[in-house]
Design goal:
This protein is of the alpha+beta class. Helix content is about 50%, strand content about 15%. The protein has 3 helices and 3 strands; from the N terminus they run αβββαα. A 3-stranded mixed beta sheet has the order 1-3-2.
Amino acid sequence: MSKSSPAYLKKLEQLFKEAGFVLRYEKGSFKAGHCLLLTQQMIVVNKFYTVDTKITALSDIAHSLHWEDDQLSAESKKVLYEIRQTALKL
């Protein structure tokens, strides 16, 4: 599966949902294209972004967070592992 596909975006959305985050797509002038509200466990991503850019923003957020792996499904753990491996290569 391509990492720039709508199906991969759905997997990222599921990852955040399982971790207890609320993910919203809204319009706004976010400096980095997204806004992370840790106290409310909410992520807001610019809704006008392309699928590729949304995936990049969510991957960056996923890499920067501390995850409790025990609350994630096997599929979400796999997605998180891929994100971590990609970040290590950069």
